[in-house]
Design brief:
Layout lengths: L28 E9 L5 E9 L8 E12 L6 H7 L1 E2 L3 E5 L3 H14 L10 E5 L14 H10 L17 E2 L2 E2 L1 E11 L2 E12 L34 E8 L5 H9 L1 H8 L8 E14 L15 H21 L3 E2 L5 E2 L4 H9 L3
Parallel strand pairs: 5-6, 11-12
Antiparallel strand pairs: 1-2, 2-5, 3-4, 3-12, 7-8, 9-10, 10-11, 13-14
């Protein structure tokens, strides 16, 4: 499927990494498990794993911070993450009713590989896919979560109807997983900021792409809404990664800038939305139980990273919409894909 740039969308002035994905940050991997079944129940769901340090994060933690833009959602492990400033496991993303299963699978994995900590509080986030997916069937198992972990690797990242994004809906169009990256120069050194989103939020009328009010150009007579137009639902999870030398306070500051990218795309943080953002930095090594030296950028040098986070988040959302394909799920409900022709035309004819 085409991505935003294939359809004439170029957000911001900063260059992307080679894959325009969160995996452009060295040793950050992504894996998916996608579950699509029609019998005995209609399943449209899955699991996505983001794995820092190429899988060695259980022995060598990364600094991290989070920001809840609107808290009608869940991301486990945040109390200790904010207290310690460290992330010591993969980050899982799934549907609302299966957070516990994925979390427990990560705990089990930590024990199985002999991770050095005495207790494990993994980070697992969710958005609700119950419109297309029979969410009460509890289709995600520990085996699915561990398969997503085993599938994780570097390079291009599958987007749209994959992993945790399989059954998600964004701006009343088919949504899901999207990713993007930016490369910035700070003090003569190049750093990468990557974003990955699970996009499942928003109203059609609010959708904007690079400042163009695209949603208002997509009529319901041509591309129907998946539900009654009075319905307000959904959430977004944003994970940011960077190889810039940031300490936990600065990771929290970076996570907040996902709000800028979300707002540009048309997210306003509805009451029913769980908009939860996480940022981590792989630069400093934090082996558990060992002393280590830490480096950091001055706060005054962070502006390029903030810009990169906003741009990469916005483009990740657009990439999720571009990659997602029309899907029919439970009760015959259908979420229609973003019409690519409308997007290309809007970019060509913009003022």
């Amino acid at each position: 499927m085409p991505r935003a740039r294939d359809l004439g969308v170029t957000i911001g002035d900063l260059p992307t990494g080679p894959h325009n994905a969160i995996t452009d940050v060295p040793d950050v991997w992504v894996g998916h498990t996608t579950i699509v079944e029609d019998h005995p129940r209609v399943i449209r769901t899955g699991v996505t794993m983001i794995v820092p340090r190429g899988g060695d994060v259980w022995h060598d933690a990364v600094f991290a911070g989070s920001y809840p833009f609107n808290g009608n959602g869940e991301m486990t492990g945040l109390l200790w993450l904010e207290e310690s400033g460290m992330l010591g496991s993969a980050v899982g993303i799934t549907n609302t009713h299966q957070v516990g299963v994925v979390r427990d699978a990560l705990v089990h994995h930590s024990v199985e590989i002999g991770a050095p900590d005495e207790f494990f509080l993994p980070v697992v986030a969710e958005t609700w896919d119950g419109w297309l997916n029979d969410i009460d069937a509890f289709a995600v198992t520990a085996e699915h979560a561990l398969a997503a972990l085993a599938n994780a690797g570097p390079g291009p990242v599958a987007e749209g109807n994959v992993g945790g994004g399989t059954g998600m809906i964004c701006h009343e169009l088919k949504g899901g997983i999207g990713t993007s990256s930016r490369v910035v120069g700070v003090g003569g050194v190049s750093y990468t900021v990557g974003a990955l989103v699970q996009a499942n939020y928003g109203s059609r009328r609010d959708l904007r792409v690079d400042g163009v009010a695209l949603g208002r150009r997509i009529g319901y007579d041509v591309t129907p809404a998946p539900w009654p137009q009075t319905k307000r639902t959904g959430s977004i999870i944003v994970v940011l990664a960077t190889d810039a030398p940031l300490i936990p306070t600065q990771c929290r500051r970076l996570a907040r800038r996902a709000t800028v990218g979300l707002a540009r795309a048309g997210g306003v943080g509805h009451n029913s939305s769980g908009d939860i953002f996480l940022a981590f930095s792989t630069h400093n090594h934090v082996p558990l139980g060992c002393a280590s030296e830490v480096t950091m950028l001055p706060h005054s040098a962070l502006d390029p990273l903030f810009e990169a986070a906003a741009d990469a988040t916005e483009e990740s959302i657009v990439n999720a919409l571009c990659a997602a394909e029309t899907m029919t799920g439970r009760l015959g409900r259908t979420a229609h894909a973003l019409p690519h022709a409308n997007l290309s035309e809007a970019m060509r004819t913009r003022p």
